[in-house]
Design a protein that fits this description.
Order of helices and strands: EEEHHEEEEEE
Shape: globular
Largest sheet: 9 strands, antiparallel
Number of domains: 2
Distance between the termini: 24 Å
Structural class: alpha+beta
Oligomer: single chain
């Protein structure tokens, strides 16, 4: 943890470890879990959503009535305009995707290994509810959450670093002092 940064209110001092039981029956006693900055993940999610809607392109849905020649002419012009707009939208979507990917990469580099006793809802089997909040020296706070990745980096009570494949977890229980 960075100097001057402190955990904010949540601490379950009696919690020593969380044990994950795999489908194979193997157990992994975990003392720390790597969590990612929520603000960066939220920004990336927003950019992914924006790029998805832009990638769909643009269509006015306008139809024309008139003689065959005038309908074809107006349709071709409208089609050309829609094509240019769609092309620009797809280009913007690509840029947004690049920005989102960079944010995810940045979030992965700013992940913190947080003691389980400082993670709210850690005993919940749904990792999307896990959150650790830290106070910066300037008084602001920052939350760290589960990344949504299939593998979670953990530190065992023996001090070994492991990747836990969440879909392989069958049961969760805690060890308390």
């Amino acid at each position: 943890m960075e100097p001057g940064i402190s955990e904010v209110p949540y601490e379950d001092s009696s919690l020593q470890a969380v044990v994950y039981v795999m489908c194979s029956g193997a157990e992994l006693a975990v003392s720390e879990i790597s969590l990612w900055p929520k603000d960066l993940l939220d920004q990336a999610t927003s950019l992914f959503a924006q790029s998805g809607s832009l990638a769909e392109g643009f269509s006015t849905g306008i139809g024309f009535i008139g003689t065959l020649g005038s309908v074809v002419t107006r349709s071709l012009l409208l089609s050309a305009v829609e094509g240019v707009i769609s092309s620009n939208m797809r280009s913007t979507a690509g840029t947004l995707l690049e920005q989102a990917a960079h944010l995810v990469w940045t979030a992965s580099r700013q992940a913190w290994s947080v003691p389980v006793k400082n993670i709210a809802n850690i005993e919940d089997a749904d990792p999307s509810t896990w959150v650790a909040t830290f106070r910066w020296p300037d008084g602001s706070t920052r939350q760290f959450v589960y990344s949504g990745q299939p593998a979670i980096q953990v530190r065992t009570i023996e001090g070994a670093t492991r990747r836990l494949i969440w879909s392989a977890v069958e049961q969760v229980y805690s060890i308390r002092a």
